[in-house]
Write a structure and sequence with these properties.
There is one protein chain. The chain has 118 residues and is an alpha+beta fold. It has helices at residues 27-33, 40-46, 53-62, 111-114; strands at 3-7, 10-14, 37-39, 65-67, 70-71, 77-79, 83-88, 91-97, 115-117. 24% of the residues lie in helices and 31% in strands. A hairpin with a 2-residue loop joins strand 1 (3-7) and strand 2. Helix 2 crosses helix 3 (53-62). The longest helix has 10 residues, at 53-62. The radius of gyration is 14 Å and the shape is globular. Mean pLDDT is 77; it is low at 16-24 and 26-33.
């Protein structure tokens, strides 16, 4: 049975073809997180890692953003559990995706619910 959810006003349906290991021990949450994805450029700006989406797109074009150790393009989809690395001039910052936001942006006070800095 497919699962439907809403992201930014669009209804999307997940078909349970590929399984992803969830970080949560609760099987209901694991099913909910299954297949939920977002473009990396949108995610970086939505969870307040960078200020604007154009900055995240420029960073991706420059090749300083890596997802699970591989160089990412702006169209790369990320999901819960992925590791994101941004290489700045002063050093690299590592992040882990905890949740995919359902809105265009989140309040800065809720950032810890969506991303964990490693």
């Amino acid at each position: 049975m497919p699962l439907s959810y809403e992201v930014w006003g669009q209804v999307r349906t997940i078909h349970f073809i590929t399984l992803r290991k969830s970080l949560s021990p609760d099987p209901d949450i694991q099913i909910y997180q299954l297949g939920v994805q977002m473009r990396i450029d949108k995610w970086l700006s939505a969870v307040n890692v960078v200020k604007r989406r154009t900055i995240s797109t420029d960073m991706l074009k420059s090749g300083v953003v890596f997802v699970n150790g591989m160089k990412a393009k702006a169209s790369k989809n990320i999901s819960v559990g992925d590791k994101v690395t941004i290489e700045y001039l002063k050093g690299a910052k590592h992040y882990e995706v905890l949740q995919i936001p359902k809105t265009k942006s989140i309040p800065k006070s809720q950032k810890e619910e969506f991303v964990k800095e490693l």
